[in-house]
Amino acid sequence: MQLTLTTAFAISAFLPAISAHLIMSNPKQWTVPTVLGPTIDLDDGMQNPLKSDGSNYPCHGVPPEGSVATYQPGSTQPLQLIGSAVHGGGSGQMSITYDTNPTKSTRWGVMTSWEGNHPIQAAGNLDPDAAHVLPLLSFKVPADLPAGKAVVAWTWFNRLGNREMYMQCATVTIGGSQTSKAGFNALPDLLRANTNNGCTVPEGVVAIKYKNPGPQVIGTGTTTIACDNTAPGTGTGSSPPVVTTAAPTRSTSFISLTTLGVPRLAAPSAAAGACAEGTIICTSTTAWSICAGGNAVPMGNVAAGTKCVAGQITKRDNRLTHERRRHHA
Q: Which segment of the chain is annotated as a signal peptide (predicted)?
């Protein structure tokens, strides 16, 4: 996405990047550095979808050295998303792989599919002047998964707007003592689309009816995707999906932002690794994090023309900015 300095400043309205799309705060997604060029090339970022050319499929970002969570087989785990551009909802999946450095040939096994009203039910986008903490979702970890380090991925096909595929990944550990891979092999393939792979999810699809949705299905799909060539799981572990009809949810919890900056919320806790939910944390004058789930989630650089100081994102001094531009011209 190429933006000039003036255009980026006008569109952002001084808002940090979180308001643009969605991030996954729990499990904590991989850190995605923001690449800035001469014209403020927002090449990638924590909240961005995958590139349409598929060059950064499957997991954009840098994996952590360790796991961010441990999941016991058979348990139900939280999925927390933050952002305002929900694009009228859509459909999504939660998948897993034991390839800790996934490539384009990595096989993903689907654990949960949300068919419609995902991540929430909405007519379009939410208030762009707010960073919404969306209603908490959950997914079930299959009971027969093998133990070990793994990567889970939340994928989403938005109903409205550009044809995009969102994919946020997190490194986790699956507990227990299972060594057989039969449980993983029984999971169906992940649906990939909108990433230059010959498959596109059309705009306006309210609820995708996945060809192979996995063992847990939330919602009722109505539209099949013609290019869905996913394969079902293999082996004796395969079983019919359990369908749950969940009431659509709307966002009710959000961090209010003002046009000229972010009001300072509670200060971060002094406890190691802890912070107050929703707190803006300035890692420098140009980079920031947000507290979600008790952890500081890196959000990359602040919007053009702004700075992050003492828990607030505010407009930079125009005179200073002008002098710097003139000096470097």
A: 1-20
